[in-house]
Design a protein that fits this description.
Keywords: Membrane, Transmembrane, Transmembrane helix
Shape: elongated
Strand order of the largest sheet: 1-2-3-4
Distance between the termini: 46 Å
Number of helices: 6
Order of helices and strands: EHHEEEEEEHEHHH
Number of domains: 3
Strand content: 5-15%
Mean pLDDT: 84
Structural class: alpha+beta
């Protein structure tokens, strides 16, 4: 291992965690309130057991809301703090520490998309998911690990370097993902609206409208990416 870094550094999740958590939380709460209301009062008479259906919808959307709130909490709580002496990984509930001098092996994994790094110590290990970092921080952190630790204790680097994607996505990649999401939401939305049209339940109108709104949002993103590229 080479000399320790001269300064400390704190890596935090990207802002998209906060955005997804807030937007998802609002969406799931609106869907939950609407679904419970429609089912409990049996507005269109399509629910044979209104209270049971309302309970199921309430629990379902409540669980999704908890996930959204967890993302918000993770954005503010989680971080990876590096000092010349140790690595500190702060999660929502758990904090792990590992001495720099105690690191005996570093594993590079190319899956998921951005990959992950596993630090092995004498009696513990620390897993660092690079997907949780911004593209800039990922590049900086990878360069730090490669330059400050002996390559002989690092395994799997060649596969990681071949399969992982650490660079920021290009505008064309973002447009491609947005088009796929828009297509998926439009198909599901139209199917739900057709189910509502054939009197299968008001809840299908609610779900269909939500999917159509998601389609409009992705269409706006596609248009924005085109303008930024043209400019």
């Amino acid at each position: 291992m080479s000399d320790a870094p001269p300064i400390s550094k704190c890596y935090r999740p990207g802002r998209h965690w906060l955005v997804i958590g807030i937007v998802g939380g609002i969406f799931f709460q609106v869907m939950g309130i609407t679904s419970v209301y429609v089912a409990y009062w049996n507005i269109d008479g399509s629910f044979p057991h209104p209270k049971a259906h309302a309970l199921v919808y309430g629990v379902f959307w409540f669980l999704w809301t908890l996930i959204a709130f967890w993302l918000i909490a993770a954005y503010f709580r989680t971080c990876l703090f590096i000092t010349p002496l140790e690595f500190t990984q702060q999660g929502c509930l758990i904090r792990r520490r590992m001495s720099v001098a105690d690191i005996s092996q570093i594993q590079w994994k190319g899956i998921p998309q951005a990959g992950k790094i596993i630090l092995h110590g004498s009696d513990c290990r620390m897993k660092i998911d690079l997907d949780n970092l911004t593209a800039k921080d990922r590049t900086e952190f990878i360069e730090f690990i490669r330059s400050h630790f002996d390559h002989r204790v690092q395994t799997g680097w060649s596969d990681f370097n071949r399969y992982s994607s650490t660079a920021a996505p290009s505008p064309e990649d973002e447009r491609r993902v947005a088009r796929r999401c828009a297509l998926m939401f439009s198909v599901v939305g139209i199917a739900c609206l057709l189910c509502g049209w054939f009197a299968l339940g008001v809840q299908f109108y609610v779900s269909g409208t939500a999917c159509i709104l998601a389609t409009v949002w992705y269409a706006w993103r596609i248009r924005r990416h085109k303008r930024s590229t043209a400019g």
